[in-house]
Amino acid sequence: MKRNLQNQKTLWDSTMGVAATLVLWPLIVSVPLMLQHTYANIFQSGWYAYQQKPKPLGLCLGLLAVAVGQTFVLCYQYVRWTKSKYAGKLVPVQPNEYRLYDYAEAAQEHLSQPEGFAVIGCYLTCTWMLHLMPSSYYSFEGGVAWSKVAACLLIQDFLQYVMHRAEHKVSKSLYRASHEPHHKFTNPRLFDAFNGSLTDTLLMIVLPLFATKSIVHCNVWTYMAFGTLYANWLCLIHSETHHPWDCVFQACGLGTAADHHVHHKLFSYNYGHLFSYWDRLCGTYRHPQNVRQFRKNHKDPTQWKPHKQKKIFSFNK
User: Fold this and answer.
1) pTM flag (> 0.85)
2) Residue 14: is its pLDDT beyond 50?
C-alpha cells in the first residue's frame, strides 16, 4: 500500500513537471507566437509599415512580450512558493540552507529594481525610437526565425560570459563597483535576478545586447522572441529550487538553476548564464554534483544569511 502511494506520488510529480515545461515555455513567447501571422488583421498598416522612420508599435509589442512572459513566470513561481500539489516535487538547489520570504514583497522588490527592467526598458526604447537598430528589426514581415533566436541567445550569452568574467578578474575596484552587490546572494532566489548595480547591468546586459543586435539582423518577431526568452530565462536560473526541465537542459548544455547557483556559491566558476558551453571550453565549468555544499549533509538546514561584500571577491582562478 505504501509503495503504491509512493508510486502514485512519483507519477503525479512527473506529470506536473512535464506539464509545467510544456506550458510555461510557450507562454513565455506567447505574444510573438500569437501575433506573428495575425497582426495585419489587428493593427492598421500605418502603425507598423516601415518608411525610414521608426513606429512605436514594434517597441510596445516587444515590451508587452517580456511583460506577459514575466507574468507567467511569476505565476509559475507563486504556485511553487505555495508548495501546491500542482507544483510537483520541489527540490532545493542548496539543501543545507533555506530562505524564508514573503512572495508579494519579493515580487514587488524584483519588479521595482531600477537596474533591472527600468534600465533595460530605457535602452530598448532609445535604440528603437532613435533608429539605432538595423532596418530589418523594424520589419513585421515573416514570422519568428528560430535559428536567429538561437543565434541571438548564443551570442548574447557569450558576450555576457566575457563581461561577467572580466568584472570578476580585471580589477578589484571594477568588481566592487559593478558585480559585487549581486554576489551577496550566495543562495539566490528567482527574484534576485536583476538585484545588483547599474554598472553591472550596463556592462553585462546592455553592452552585449547592443553588440548582438549589430551581429544578428532579424525581424521584429524574432527580436521579440529573443528578448522575452532572454529576460525570463535569466530569472529562472536564479530559482531556489530545481525546475522540472533541468535534467534535459543539463544534458544539452543549457543553463540551469543549479549551474548558476554554483557561481553564486563559489564565485570562480560557471560564468555563463543561458549556456555552459563557454565555461566548458574555457575550463571554468563546475558541475553542481561536484559541489560539496549542494549535497545533503544530513543535518537540519540552516537559514541563509547574505555574505558581506568585502568577503566575496576571489582571485584564486
Assistant:
1) yes
2) yes
